[in-house]
Write a structure and sequence with these properties.
Layout: E1 2-7, H1 15-29, E2 33-38, H2 52-56, H3 68-76, E3 80-86, H4 94-109, E4 118-125, H5 130-142, E5 156-158, H6 169-190
Parallel strand pairs: 1-2, 1-3, 3-4, 4-5
Helix pairs in contact: 1-6, 3-4, 4-5
The chain binds flavin mononucleotide (FMN).
Length: 191
């Protein structure tokens, strides 16, 4: 079993990455393979509404000069997906939004290729906007018939500078429990 995570922060080893690693640790304890893909510092274009994905219906995007098709391949090959983003002006980062829109549309057009994958959002904020970003990421999963495991709170951590999220005890616990529940659910579904 495998879970792929996409880090939408341009800070490759920042708070979002740290939070994802907390979830990964629980998955790995249960023998689930993990892979972290850095998208935040990549040039990813937004959806250009060409609707070619609906015509080809192959689950991939007509824009082929960035990493989105590679991300889609990794999503389709995985049993679980995590999308992590810091809060930027109350929203996901630009790169995260581009991934959400294009992967969401292509997967739907390909015949709901994310259906019943176990999917979760991971969010870090300095102070405000985490629930909104949590919802924005979950929209991708909800509109694709994914299955969303829960934790003890919204999947969010608090921190500004790199590493500060580790001081958020409740946030760390939330990510740990998310990892436990994600592993539990994956194992049940694959049993
Ligand atoms: C352009 C920009 C906008 C931000 N907007 C918000 C915001 O709206 N709310 C908030 O709580 N934090 C905001 N932050 C702070 C980040 O969410 C916070 O520093 C987070 O820990 C960054 O995660 P990272 O280390 O994974 O990049 C913003 C940071 C930047 C660079």
């Amino acid at each position: 079993m495998k879970v792929v995570a996409f880090n939408g922060s341009p800070r490759e080893k920042g708070n979002t990455s740290i939070a994802i690693q907390i979830v990964f640790a629980e998955l790995e304890k249960e023998g689930i393979e993990t892979e972290l893909v850095q998208i935040g510092s990549n040039n990813i274009r937004g959806c250009n509404a060409c609707s070619k994905c609906k015509k080809t219906a192959d689950g991939f995007c007509a824009i082929n000069d960035d990493i989105v098709n590679e991300c889609l391949k990794k999503m389709y090959a995985s049993d679980g997906i995590i999308i992590g983003s810091p809060v930027y002006f109350g929203s996901v980062t630009t790169e995260t939004k581009a991934l959400i829109d294009r992967s969401g549309l292509c997967a739907r057009a390909g015949g709901y290729l994310l259906k019943r994958k176990v999917c979760a959002a991971v969010v870090v904020a300095r102070r405000q906007g985490a629930v909104s970003v949590f919802n924005q990421i979950n929209n991708l999963f909800i509109l694709n018939q994914a299955i969303i495991p829960c934790s003890i709170y919204w999947n969010m951590g608090i921190g500004k500078n790199i590493g500060e999220v580790e001081n958020d005890e409740e946030g760390m616990k939330t990510f740990k429990v998310l990892g436990e529940n994600m592993a539990w659910l994956l194992k049940k579904l694959k049993a």
